[in-house]
Amino acid sequence: MDGDSKSVRARSWAEPFRIKMVEPITVTTREHRERAIASAGWNTFLLRAEDVYIDLLTDSGTNAMSDRQWAALMLGDEAYAGSRSYYHLEDAVREVYGYEELVPTHQGRGAEHILSQILIKPGDAVPGNMYFTTTRFHQERAGGRFIDVIVDEAHDPASTYPFKGNVDLAKFQAVIDEYGADRVPYISVETNVNMAGGQPLSLANLRATYELCRANGIYLMLDATRAVENAWFIKQREPGYQDRSVREILREICRYSDGATVSSKKDNLVNIGGFLALRDAELARRARGLLVAFEGLHTYGGMSGRDMEALAQGIREMVETDDHIAARIGQVEYLGKKLTDAGVPVVLPIGGHGVFLDARSILAHIPQEQFPAQALAAALYVDSGVRSMERGVVSAGRDPKTGENHLPKLELVRLTIPRRVYTQAHMDVVAESVIEVCEHASEIAGLRFTYEPDDLRFFLARFEPIG
Ligand code: F0G
Predict the structure, then answer these.
(1) Cα–Cα dist 44/377, whole Å
(2) How far, in Å, CA of 99 to CA of 226, rounded?
(3) Which residue intervals of the chain bear CATH 3.90.1150.10?
(4) Cβ neighbours of residue 55 under 8 Å, at least 6 residues apart?
(5) Residue 343's CB: how many other CB atoms inside 10 A?
(6) How many whole angstroms from 59 Cα to the centroid of ligand 1?
(7) What distance in Å separates the CA atoms of residue 44 and residue 266, rounded to the nearest whole number?
């Protein structure tokens, strides 16, 4: 058949790479996994990776690097000051993101720390389109108060609104009215909002938010950690962008901002690294002043020369063509569709970096104070050795003022897909396990804390089953 004229049938996508090196993984017995989850205090963060079969804890730092990135490692310049690799990274950030000033950090939270310290004064309000754990932690540590200004649809897992990452401009305006623009140093706008289920914002919304910022003398700082994934959804969903490349859309996203924090462990296709990027040279000077105390000299900021070299290559590679991101998000959608076809309640639309199970609805018999998502993640691990992550009340933590638990509307288990690591067959195994666990959901018990850390408690908390 002459493909050009009559190919109306949808064709499958395939990964735009072939596999050159493999890392063995092994499946364990159910008894082994029962012992492992008990000794990990029912917290998947505390499992040994060796005891995991398919690791969907996070897409952070779990990427497979390309042959060109591995080759770039050998070219790392380990000079303490003025490393050639730093300048390669600076070139890549200027070329792909369009920010002039680069402040390298060891990972994303390093950049969040520096940004919060240079801009937030005690008592300030810091609006954002939903919280992220480490981001809010650094804002509060600097004396700020995080205020959620995301659209209401983001809090409803069943809503299929295409841009659940959008800022609600009325909520943002209300923060300005209440605090006064001079007590709102910046709005933190996250691309492809992680805690909402990997949900994008639209360029129209970002542009309007930026205009409101300019009118009030407020900075717009992006969390551009997953901006490439957001750009892909804009290309799919926002009128006028179908014929633009993801590379061009990414540049346009950054245009409506004064700077960005980036965890390079996601979009950027490396295992460690991050940066703060800014337009304003004076702000960057202040950031570098803190950087030398907390991260490292301004030309490495906690990364080795080889890390920066691999990162520069990863930044170019992530937008070299649209094929990479099409396959990356295509794989997430493949898993999501298997689950929705089986009637498993998940956050809709399927997000960019993972599929988020709606634990509140799957485990309706467990009250939120008994951590349904934490219990579901543990049960999934015991069933198949698939490791996932709680993103609900445990992650949300306590209000620093009242000491009460934040009770987020979203009580989710995140199946996060590392980039270029697993195959479609792995996704089939994951889907079968999730479906099986959901069929026996009534047998799962709630949990209580046996150890609750003060800060970012989800990382190190320990639990035991109730009853
Ligand atoms: N911002 C977002 C949106 C993130 O998802 C993360 C990390 C960070 C900032 C912090 O970056 O880890 O390099 O210090 N998210 C990981 C996750 C931990 O599993 O979602 P980091």
Answers:
(1) 7
(2) 16
(3) 30-59+322-465
(4) 49, 62, 387, 418
(5) 8
(6) 9
(7) 20
pLDDT tens per residue, range 415-428: 999 999 999 999 99
* pLDDT confidence of residue 300: 98
**pLDDT tens figures, 137-152:** 999 999 999 999 999 9
Distance CA 205, CA 256 (A): 10
pLDDT digits (tens, 9 = 90+) for 447-460: 999 999 999 999 99
Question: Using one digit for the tens of pLDDT, what is the confidence trace for 90-135?
Answer: 999 999 999 999 999 999 999 999 999 999 999 999 999 999 999 9
What is the third-level CATH fold of 30-59+322-465?
Aspartate Aminotransferase, domain 1 (3.90.1150)
97 contacts 253 by C-beta, under 8 angstroms? no
Question: How far does residue 108's CA lie from ligand 1's centre (Å)?
Answer: 6
pLDDT over 70 for what percent of the chain? 99
Cα separation, 331 vs 280, whole angstroms? 38
pTM: 0.96
Residue nearest to atom 8 of ligand 1 (CA): 108
For the chain, where do the domains classified as CATH 3.40.640.10 start and end?
67-317
Burial of 186 (0-12, 13-18, 19+ CB in 10 A): buried
Contact by Cβ (8 Å): 274, 97: no
For residues 372-385, give the mean pLDDT.
98
Distance 151 CA to ligand 1 centre (A): 21
- Residue 132 is a catalytic residue: yes
Residue 1 confidence (pLDDT) above 50? no
- Nearest-atom number in ligand 1 for the CA of 193 is 3
Nearest Cα residue to 310 out of 264, 247, 263: 264
Per-residue confidence (pLDDT) for residue 3, from 0 to 100 = 46
> Of the residues 164, 266, 316, 338, which is catalytic?
266
80 is catalytic: yes
Q: Specify the CATH class of 67-317 in words.
A: alpha beta
Q: Tell whether ligand 1 has an atom less than 6 A from the beta carbon of residue 188.
A: no
Under 8 Å between Cβ of 319 and 342 = no
* pLDDT of 7 strictly over 70: no
Active site residue 458: yes
Q: Which two tokens stand for residue 73?
A: 């490692």
Task: Return the sign of the alpha-carbon dihedral for residues 210, 216, 221, 223.
Answer: negative
Q: How would you class 442 by CB atoms within 10 Å of its CB: exposed for 0-12, middle for 13-18, buried for 19 or more?
A: exposed
Residues 6 or more apart from 240 whose CB is under 8 A from it?
Answer: none
SS3 386: strand
Round the average pLDDT of the chain to a whole number and report it: 96
